[in-house]
Write a structure and sequence with these properties.
alpha/beta, Rossmann fold, 8 strands, binds adenosine-5'-triphosphate, binds magnesium ion
């Protein structure tokens, strides 16, 4: 069983969205997957999973709320993959979850305003060497400027962290899909579908290997 977490120091940067995208990709590959939702204020993934069920979208994705890692550990027996979504601000649970995970994704925007706190969190988590090796920064909600993406990539590279080899582009259409309980490659728009498939494939490869 693999545990993959999405953590961050900035709110609204795509943690819950990418968690759902990865969960859907894994489920479509027949992995038994659950989302562990630690954001008890928002329960983004739990609400989305219920919406998905109401709209009859297959495969169903289990998403449960958790307050502690202890509870998660005792519940996840029998799953191939547990995708952990965490709160907007990093806290002590962020460190615990990261230690427990096989891969720790840190989504970030391309601006220095986003990169600075993200890389600071990455450094903080890396004080535990074994966690440092699991960190993968993901450029998320990127705009259409290749220059900004390349600049961000070199900033992450210079900081010495691994990066996902695909970016998650900002497109309005993704929001409509999420609102209906879909995610990523389930998009009805072929362009969005293609963009999702690249990110999904990159995340899934890391998640399951
Ligand atoms: N690629 C995208 N294009 C457009 N909108 C997006 C994209 N990805 C996510 N969003 C939207 O951005 C908002 C924030 O995304 P999300 O909830 O995934 O972030 P988060 O990091 O989990 O936020 P929080 O810190 O509040 O938990 C949501 O409204 C979501 O629908
Ligand atoms: Mg969230």
């Amino acid at each position: 069983m693999r545990i993959v977490s999405f953590v961050g120091q900035k709110g609204g940067i795509g943690k819950s969205t990418l968690a759902r995208v990865l969960a859907v990709a894994a489920a479509r590959q027949q992995y038994k997957v659950m989302i562990g939702d630690f954001d008890l204020q928002q329960l983004t993934c739990v609400e989305w999973s219920a919406m998905r069920m109401r709209n009859g979208i297959e495969p169903e994705i289990d998403a449960r709320a958790f307050k502690s890692l202890k509870k998660l550990r005792s519940t996840i027996v029998g799953y191939d993959l547990v995708v952990v979504d965490t709160r907007g601000l990093a806290d002590s649970l962020t460190e615990e979850v990261s230690q427990e995970s096989d891969v720790v994704f840190l989504p970030t925007g391309t601006s220095m305003d986003d990169l600075r706190p993200t890389l600071a969190l990455a450094r903080k988590l890396s004080t535990n060497r074994s966690v440092g090796k699991k960190i993968v920064v993901v450029l998320s909600k990127t705009g259409r400027s290749d220059r900004l993406i390349e600049q961000a990539e070199s900033t992450i590279f210079d900081a010495g962290f691994d990066m996902l080899n695909a970016v998650w582009p900002e497109r309005d259409g993704f929001q409509s899909d999420l609102d209906l309980g879909r995610a990523g490659s389930e998009s009805s728009n072929p362009h969005l579908k293609m963009a999702s498939q690249k990110v999904e494939q990159a995340m899934l490869t890391l998640a399951m290997n």
